[in-house]
Fold each of these.
Amino acid sequence: MTRKMMGCVAALVTATTAAGIVGLGSTSASARGEAPTVAAADSYARQHGAPRADLRLDRTVQVPGGSVAHFQQYLAGKPVIGAEVVVQLDARGKIHGTTGAVTSAPRSVTAAPARTEASAERTAKASLRKAGAPEVDATAAAATDLAWYDAGLFKGAASKGAVTLVHDVEVTPTAVDAVGGRVLVDANDGTPVYTETTQRDATNRRVCDARNQYVTNLDCPSPVRTEGSAASSVSEVNVAYDQLGATSSFYTSRFGYDLSTQIGGGALRATVRACYRDSGGDYGCPMENAFWTGRSMVFGQGFASADDVVSHELTHGVIQNTADLVYSYEPGAINESMADVFGEFEDLDNGTGNDTSSARWLLGEDLPIGAIRDMKTPERGSQPSSYRGQYWQSGSSDNGGVHTNSGVGNKAAYLITDGGTFNGQTITGLGQAKAEQLYWRTLNALTSSSNYAQLGQTLKSSCSALASGGTAGFTSTDCQQVSKVVTATRM
């Protein structure tokens, strides 16, 4: 069965038994044999305009109820950013769905860059400065890989068959005046085609206190409280320490995922009472904001007190190391929504803060400025509850509306968990325990360029895989409810 939405075809693959999964570094999928997992990925690529695609197994991830196999598309031996295919398998090896995106660019392209890596790194740092990100100095560390860029995939849209050879430059954040990001630089004419800072607005623990001064290093070089040490005399340090621990415990107990090693490089770092400014302006002191730098957390005064905000920002680190959703347009909106969803799950689980019925599904209800989003009723914050519904943002501001269009994913999570009647669909909620497992599997089955149609499909195929073996008590009735939610939110 195929379904077209936004110019993309989402294919559901009939369940078959996977004989095995091929190893990393193979050549084209069709040349590697007829293992059903490989055949499913190959078939998906053909349906989306990429016959004989060079798909290589990037990783296989164990998830509740089975596993997901991620394939990366290559052209001329170089990866196509965002061109990925994911095959979902249950615990018995049956395939329950295939999703993703591929480029339809011809295989005859050649990967012969005219510009050097050093030149690309200089351009990347200049682009970050021009974009209004914090100043990036010449000594900031940078890592560069050669890859292909398909502009359509970065918006969650269909490929138009045009690719650009780019230097994919990752600038590592260090000091405030050297915060980094990711820049794709045309490998032939040297112009930046995509720029993204590593910041997102909004257990081995290390907590620093900036004392409402402008910080000089975002990596918490001089912690005032570390793992196992005595409580600080500064309450916000202790609150941040406790919230980091609570979020870490949530991910470990629910999904067996160690935040310290997976996203923290061996430690979870945070700076509280921080003030911040960059080339684009001064964000105030005290600062009314919080963000994830790519390696650590930074909180303005009072912002570490909101457990869901802490979990939201740390979840950006989890997303970065799982689906790695591009932070623009629909993939970026799903990125923000997933951070909200897991942030709220942790908030509802930990027994701290305001968990009254009136605060349920509010994000940031414990902030000094009050709640910043309503996941149950996104319209209260001028966000859409359904795809391209009221308040949907179609422009390019805010990276293509990532903080606005996240309302669609948030509404879906509320309905899947608690149920309700919406857009002609009456849904029986699965409850939080099942919803957590469904969303964890779904996050691990998304690709970096997933759009809302693919999120809807992945929620359904994830549920199907869970119900196949009765994992976490999932049944086919649960999956009917998930399908109703996808219909109601028009994904």
Amino acid sequence: MFLEEQDQIPWAALVYVTGQINYGGRVTDDLDRRCLMSILKKYYVPDILDDGYTFTPSGTYYAPPEGDLQSYRDYIDDLPLVEAPEVFGMHPNANITFQMQETKKMMDTVLSIQPRATSTEGGKSPDDLVAALAAELAASIAPTLSFDEAVEGLFDRTASGQLKSLSVVLSQEIERFNRLTKVVNASLKELQKAIKGIVVMSFDLEQMYTNFLNNQVPGIWERAAYPSLKPLGGWMEDYHKRIAFMRNWLQHGNPKTYWLPGFFFPQGFMTGVLQTHARKYAQPIDSLNFTFEVLEGKEVAEDVAEAVADGVLIDGLFVDNARWNREERFLDESEPGVMCSNLPVVHFVPIQHYNPPPLLAPADPKEYQCPLYKTSVRAGLLSTTGQSTNFVLTVGLPIRPGTTSDFWVLQGVALLCALND
């Protein structure tokens, strides 16, 4: 219909009908729809009519020239049996990520079906190992956070009788961490009692026992905790680091930089920052949006000498499937074999009447709206905002000259609050 009724091929209409209606109507997430549209733009372009146009940089995949049936069969037979990442616009590192994920699935399956070993001569039994680990972890748990530790003035009210927005965020985070700490402490004590036969080994404790043997985070902890993909050892280290960050904030006041991965609910912190700016300048909060600046020479929090007047400094973020080019100060392709890299300290600046480019806007040659997620799963429950609970916000980052935002969408570039190890 589109091809016969018009003198020229309506490429824009074809992309819209296919991406936004036929398929896009079934995609509810704007970031997923953006990915779909970026893929279609590789195929729904006038250049595809040229014999020299290829779908991949290597030239392996292209629309074969007009010919007989056998020529098309020969072309298909010559295609690789296993598709390379370039078919999907991805970096070669995607192969490594895929293989690591497949290996993890296989190892998880093996661990789930292995029988419980008994102690060998001179060795420790599983009960001894789990009991010792539970006792060690219980001894390392810090006391719950108490508002009595708060530095003077942190929870003072303003002249209008309101609590400071970031102090409210801190109090909510303290409540969440204290709830988690109580669950961790109680379960560790119950597990030690169950191993000794003092209490009944419940289903949750049985699962916790198995998780400890396999260096996995117990499900009873995961239900009370923040999203995390780390093994037990990494999870405990991260847990202690989060508690230490909150305690330092509580005892010494607002930090110069905020470690965003340390929050239970970073979306709430972002709202608190906007609310602080709105109250300071008497501006409507719904007229504010963040702009972003990656600071030069500020790799970690210790490199920052003083806090900023407006907005906040954020540290601890990671770039997944790309890297930050520190010399040229733009987003660049990953080094071979390096899946994730550190992002320097970022200044989040609230600006009034600034509207970031829509996710479904035409390809941008200067900036990529990079999604920030809590974990590398990049998925979560659908919240009341229409966004995944794992999604925080999009961060506008400058990109390498000669590329467009579509290139980075297909590369699967995102920012992460936490890695898997």
Amino acid sequence: MSRHAEAGRKGREARSDCHVTIEPTESGGINLEVTSRVDYLYADAIRSLVLDALDRLEVTDARVTVEDQGAVPFVMLARVETAVRRAWPGRPFPECLPETDPAGTVPTARDRWRRSRLYLPGNEPKYLLNAHIHGADAVILDLEDAVPPAERDAALLLVRNALHALSFGDCERMVRVNRLPQGLDDIPPLVRAHVQVLLLPKCEDPEQVRAAAALVETTRAEAGVKAQVYLMPILESPRGMLQALEIAEASPLTAALTWGLEDYLREIGGRRTPDGEETLWARSQVVNAARAAGVQPIDTVYADIENLDGLREHTRRARDFGFEGKGCIHPRQVPVVNEVFIPQPAEVAEACAIIEAFEAARREGRSVVAIGRRMIDAPVVNRAGRIVELARRAGLLPDEGGTR
């Protein structure tokens, strides 16, 4: 059964967005009305884009209005598709995709550095367009807590299209899906859109991770997606914390393990204190489970976006505790987090010495590597290599070509 439907934002506050209204009709073809603050430049292009989208979605009879506030094509396509799906609930439709940016299909690495991950609401186009400019190692396009439940269908299509149309620069492309099992529906379109890491919120059972991993692999095979897609479970409850190791080990696709402070405290009935004593056990669980499973431990977010000194101290404690990165909820937090997780000069010097000793032993055919009385094994060498790599990226060391 069809019905009147709409999608997107309207009004002058709806920057980089558009509002689409669809009223199904029995006949008469498509009656399209477009208003735009840039209609003197793009009115014909907008009409052509919308009509093409409706044709691809096999909509033949409807009254359609579009109120544009500077939406780029991938946003407008997502809003049209959302309105169509809402107008004919339950009817199957093809995906209405924008052209894919080849740079957005570049694979990521399971062990890449993830110092900072910037959360962005998946239903706000204005934040997606410039997500890469803030210097975060990764951007998290959020489909869960940052999006009102009634708008999560629209956010999924918008994020899917953004992954196709935008490269996000050097940022790793992450998406936090909805809580499983609902979040399983989010996974196939995101995998086809070349997402690199999927965050699994409120994870409490290793079977949730295995179900997500199986769906990722099935979708990759069916869609011919060559790049690997990794998982990052988020522990946010006592039940999840008690199964931290089992969750971290549930799938070889898991690249990192993280946790959510606010939900966890609410679940245990705890209160936040300045020294964080109430979360000492939880942080220990995450770090030890991640290290035992061979994945990265990533710390939770710091909620006070105005207190950068507090963020710096909180991040320093996380680093010293064994975490390799931290979530950010505002762009101003990114430089602070990145700075704290850059290796210190003494760490860099030690890492260089380890690499040099390992290379010397290999040239000489020695199987045993030592610095002083300390034996050096493969994990230590790998860790040293990652420290050297980050130091080069931060400009603390010349690159392999000898330039800074």
